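Before the break, one more example. Copy the sequence into your notebook; we will annotate it together after we see the structure.
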Amino acid sequence: MLLRWTFLLCSLVLAMTSAATPNYDSRSTKYYIVVDAGSTGSRVFIYQGNGVQNIKMATHPDDPNRPAVLAVVPGLSSFAEHPDRCFDEGFRELLEFA
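Here is what the structure looks like once it is written out:
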């Protein structure tokens, strides 16, 4: 069950990323979203770049001296008994940040 929810979330993130960049232009900046849905908490990492060799961690929108990372607790495994709460009690905040 946990694996299915993780796969579903990753698919959603990939679909959002693909929809945001329908025409690839190697000169324009692209953003890449990585979600680490772990047992102790979930984190979203935002990267930016304009090509495969130029990808770097994006800066935080509130503080350009910090990387664009957000973590929330509890972890994904804590929703095993109530998977319907997973999005509203954790992943919504991550996706809004991204």
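The longest strand covers residues 30-37. The helical segments are 2-20, 87-97. Try to locate both features in your own notes.
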